[in-house]
## 1
Amino acid sequence: MKNFTSNFLGTIAVALSITACSSNEWTVKGDIEGGEGHLLTLEASSNGGWYMLDSLTLKSDKFDFSQPAAGYPDIYRLAIDGKYIYFPVDSIETVSLKTSLDKFGSEYTLEGSDATAMIMEVEKRVAQVVNTKGEYAVAIDDSLKRDLAKMIIANPSGIVAYYIINKKIGKTPIFNASVKSDLRIIGAVANAYTENRPNDPRTEYLKNLYLANKAMYTNYAKNDTVVVGQTHIFDINLNNPDGKKVSLANEATKGKVILLNFTSMTADESPAFNIELAKIYNEYKDRGFEIYQVSVDEDEYAWQKAAKNLPWISVYAGVDNPKCLIEYNVNFIPALYVINRNGEISERITDITKIKSTISKYL
């Protein structure tokens, strides 16, 4: 019995050892000098938004977080007292941090992978520009952007490239999708992710970010109208210029014919296009016609200024809110859909010269 028990326990020990070694988790740990008593949070990103994964109140300078592997590379951050340190995780590695409470987010050392070192370098380069020239200089500093562009092009389907093109200082993006030269860099990343990471959850976001802004520099399409058949709508519930949410689904219950339009107020063609829409709106509004216009502008203030005097419904999606663009398969603007009196999508219009004749069929 003694030998059996000994052998059995030995077998269990080996099994536990194998399980521990094959744990499908990644870890971030380290030392924060002076951090005792402060709340430290571990946060994950979702295409620009952040949410908490875990938190702890430091009982000493040391900390340790472990999380299940996501199955794809991703960006995470540590937060303490409103300051942040960003780091990538590729798979199941361990990331180590050394810093102090008073210098958290500004002076620190990260170790773990090549991507970890590169993101630390990105943060240092950006901080140099901010400290010497101010926050708004990051978007126009040619030297900084050349250095960052080299990092992106070296591995456009890598997590560092994704991190750089989504990085903002305050509300100012370093690579602005509404700037042609920046959009080319974003397009390179979107293309690389599409080719090399088709199942990555960020790929669709990158494609729509690029396409929504590319359309600003492309002439409006003049193809034949595409009939998509009777399809129930996807709801859109976004703010109008007064900051009040307006639901497309709610408008569709009022028995009106609705022209759903995805557009950009800052596109060169937008004023002329809205003039044509105004002619149609004024002619048909008393017959139960409405326009629900969704703006994908980068600059919310510019949209608000242009939209506040429009007689129809205008809401703001921006380029950081791709959900409705994905659902309605928007790959160029203006994108136009006819919603009939039963609240169903009847047609997608891709020839803007046929808007009036198409609308008139449903009134």
## 2
Amino acid sequence: MINNMPKVKIGIVAVSRDCFPESLSVNRRKALVEAYTKKYDAEDIYECPICIVESEIHMVQALEDIKKAGCNALCVYLGNFGPEISETLLAKHFEGPKMFVAAAEETQDDLVQGRGDAYCGMLNASYNLQLRNIKAYIPEYPVGDAEDCADMIHEFLPIARAIDGLNNLKIISFGPRPLNFLACNAPIKQLYNIGVEIEENSELDLFEAFNKHAGDDRIPAVVKEMEEELGEGNKKPEILSKLAQYELTLLDWIEAHRGYRKYVAIAGKCWPAFQTQFGFVPCYVNSRLTAKGIPVSCEVDIYGCLSEFIGTVVSNDIVTLLDINNSVPKDMYAESIEGKFNYTHKDTFMGFHCGNTASSKLSFCEMKYQMIMARSLPIEVTQGTLEGDIKPGDITFYRLQSTADNKLRAYIAHGEILPVATRSFGGIGVFAIPEMGRFYRHVLIEGGYPHHGAVAFGHHGKALFEVFKYIGVPVDEIGYNQPAGVRYPTENPWG
């Protein structure tokens, strides 16, 4: 399913201060690796056996070894106090994402020759990382026994995938944002700052490429795939060949334009001229590419597709991009939510988009026309949306954004999609997020966020928070839904 995301292999390098017994780090590293492979996939990690890093020469040897082993992430393991210079130089010269963890003392019966003092060493390591301006992930409580540290390394996996993915990502966009969609327009400088490349293209370039795919002999096979996916929801069979032609156009464009980048996401155009010129809307194709692990945002939302990509690699699952769209009517709340779920009316809202959510994330689906566009255009050029209620379950609503003055900002909120019929159109769901009303006012509105939010299926806030920190979002610029009783800085204390 997912074929556009990194596979992470974490090299575990143990370090030792030369005035501590090297055997502490050797034995603790072995125990750590054993604990990890008992509980998790052994292919996630690589144990660097060449040396215990005590000096700069050892650091170079270890660095060469983990690179040769194909590691694209690093875990510096303080088996004892650790050499603050060599261990942080290792992190400096390793190009991928890195983390630091430290060994706890095992037993009260071995606190003389067997005491490692890594609890102390982690403080020096963190100070030296800051001196050298080195970014590294340090867990909330970074000191533990073999099993504890194995869990920490496993929690680092989705974070490392995201960082490695961003360092190898190209965003391909088509056209400027539609008129009156300035909210989706943001400076691209921050993309370069976090290691992402962008290729901005004209809609005319895309239209030319699409026309060149007319009669492509692969179209019938893609149409067959679409028919099988849609099943009884295939209500617009006459449009499938054009949609297949468009899908092949995008996939071929990706291969021709990815350049030296491994991963790709697309910020696509869908109106106002797209429908009349292409003769359809691209929503269903967007959903299919996103299901393949190639996120496609609507309305040329560059930071929207960036957010989708991050969520895809963190969750290892399909994501979607929705409008934070409309309030839940009071009668719907009274009939279907109040007394059944522990949410107030202001905790609820509807997340909607025309039809870009993958079919596997919908409770049911049908191919339809885009009702909003059809109010001012012929229906036949607005076909191609995938409509249906989004499956209930846990979600994370989040977004990474560059502000108008080129600063990185983000928000994250855990919630769920309720098993409540929407009685509406599009790809849509009834969402509930604790204290959503206050979050909406004091994070989304106050922070100047656009109406698009990325949705990951499941609760992934912990990893997303660490990813945002790692790439340089100031902690005070990562908004979240404050619990009741915790006031936002902009919140009126008198309510």
## 3
Amino acid sequence: MKNTSSSLPGSSVSYYLGRICWKLFRALLMICLAFVILYPILYMVSMAFRTVEDVYSPQVVWIPNQLTLHNIVFTAEVLDYWKLLGRTIFISGTSTLAQIFVCSMVGYGLGRFQNNGFSVVIGVLLLTIIVPQQIIALPTYFNFQSVDFFGIIQLITGEPSKLTLLGTPFLTAILALFGQGIRSGLIILIFRQAYHSMPKELEDAAMVDGSGFLGTYFKIMVPNAVNVILVCFLFTLVWYWNDYYITSIYIGNFPTLAVRIAGIRPAFQVATGNAAFDPYYMVVVEQAACLMMILPVLVLYIFTQKYFTESIEKTGLVG
């Protein structure tokens, strides 16, 4: 019998040609997506190091004719960069640590202990994610404007409390400690899913060895959730680093880099003594300020991207 297989002369050519076309299409698609994602950063870097002449030159598109650090130095002086950088690191770091600690413990409780009111707690938790921060900002502001500790101060002194937490650099950390930090509900759900998926035998073995709930959590659960903690820590740190809304409302007396950059145009006009500041050069110094703001986060990502991507794969956080 003749071999009636589909190994015709043109079939293998069509197969390899199809594979080559598919690989070229994927490569082109990835290049286009990478350009869309990296375009803001490339534009920022290109503008931050341009001279005034390059700003007005139609021949300069991406690469300046002459690189200069004057924009970076001038922007650092106007922003008081190093002072604000230290303040931003302090506020973002304390708030992130407080949020990770609280959300991890709450997620552990929701993931390992369930009772009749579990669905109600999950529903309230989802409400904290669904309800926008702007809706609860006003009552939260008034609560921190006059802290009375359930009326105890007024009961002792006979007058309304004059204690206020507004304008203190610890306020965002206090919100995080009470589960009201930036996207705390989402972080709690991530931890809840991570702890819920861990084998119950780990807890049973710890209980047999005489460990209590807290001992089991710190000695068994936390070491097994290092990947989740790392991912949530980096996400939360970036959220607090870029936050403008909460910081400007509650701790306006201690502005961070994000708050200062939001009002950078008047600051530049005051620094130059020119109310009619050159609008084209304003774009350059704004891009320099944004580059200086994201630079610490980029450096952090460069040193942690290997562990970050591995943790993303192990925790299953996609999309």
